[in-house]
Hints:
With 151 residues, the protein is of the alpha+beta class. It has helices at 22-25, 81-92, 111-119; strands at residues 2-8, 16-20, 29-33, 39-43, 55-58, 63-68, 70-77, 99-100, 104-108, 125-130. 17% of the residues lie in helices and 35% in strands.
Amino acid sequence: xxxxxxxxxxxxxxxxxxxxxxxxxxxxxxxxxxxxxxxxxxxxxxxxxxxxxxxxxxxxxxxxxxxxxxxxxxxxxxxxxxxxxxxxxxxxxxxxxxxxxxxxxxxxxxxxxxxxxxxxxxxxxxxxxxxxxxxxxxxxxxxxxxxxxxx
Length: 151
């Protein structure tokens, strides 16, 4: 099993890729399977979040590209910056991880949050997309905080 131990900025050769969801990309220790089917281990320094496009290398110089896996997200598309800011404010007030773009925001699908956003007159689209939320003030991603209230 190849053991990937460092993140690198650039490589002339990329040998393979590994597709991981956010929950996997925030772990410092992870057993996974590369996209070509090889069993691998990822051993990064704690607090080091892997992002889409990152390159990681094993001790022999074998390089993998990290691919953000599609996840079920709630997406809000709106051209009005004030409405977008308002949605970000209310979601952020609930400590929801957000991927913020110029005319959209995305968060892990949660029907309670969707209902809140719809109460502001905004449409919510459920879709499968790679998720790369903002790093936040302390550059960490939390994955244990959930707002799902399904019974």
